[in-house]
Amino acid sequence: QSALTQPASVSGSPGQSITISCTGTSSDVGGYNYVSWYQQHPGKAPKLMIHGVTNRPSGISNRFSGSKSGNTASLTISGLQAEDEADYYCCSSTSSTTWVFGGGTKLTVL
Amino acid sequence: EVQLVESGGGLVQPGESLRLSCAASGSTLSENWMHWVRQAPGKGLVWVSHIKGVGTSTSYADSVKGRFTISGDNAKNTLYLQMNSLTAEDTAVYYCARGGPNRSFDYWGQGALVTVSS
User: pLDDT digits over A44-59, tens only?
Assistant: First the structure.
């Protein structure tokens, strides 16, 4: 159950786009379309942003999008806004019906 | 609206036990997968355990297997996490979360802080 690999930090200016990668293995990210992404502001509970690699829950802005290629999933945020500054975590279900998170990525809006 | 409210956190000594509760409203425990996820101070999210329905199937992270037990009470619509043989490495905020579409976590509680220290 090794953690998925995410960059520790990314940054972008308002209006720009950024992409956060999430690399796993064929037993998790690459093997199933069960990748989800979470946004967490300091002191708050995580919030579901993307499920099933590409699907946005109701109420989530279409500025957030997800994709996957092989063992790497990605979250793209377009039209960056100040309120997007937060920690982002990817997560994947695995072949043994467990779940594994990425280490988290701190997004800074410059 | 779905609400999850954790309780039972606190300060315990190494080797002791603690039971966390997660009271659900707006959602029926027996109809959903439910999870516990923890976050050590300043660290990332770590999945801990899941239960399918209430007791039909469970799984655990290797780090807690054999020490933690997840369970639920249909009548009280409440999820539990029994934690035994606690160590300092178990110090974290523990969140309960409801299983959502595509094996995601769609609703989260506010978290309960567990501190293991002598």
Answer: 999 999 999 999 999 9
| Sign of the CA dihedral running B55, A53, B43, B7 | negative
What is the spatial distance between Cα A36 and Cα B71, in angstroms, rounded to a whole number? 25
Cβ atoms < 10 Å from Cβ of A78:
15
Rounded to whole angstroms, the Cα distance separating A25 from B24 reads 34
Q: Which residues contact A69 (CB under 8 A, 6 or more apart)?
A: none
CB < 8 Å to B61, chain A = 1, 98
Residues of B in contact with A51 (CB under 8 A): 100-104, 106
Tens of pLDDT, residues B56-96 = 799 999 999 999 999 999 899 999 999 999 999 999 999 99
CB of A38 less than 8 A from some CB of B: yes
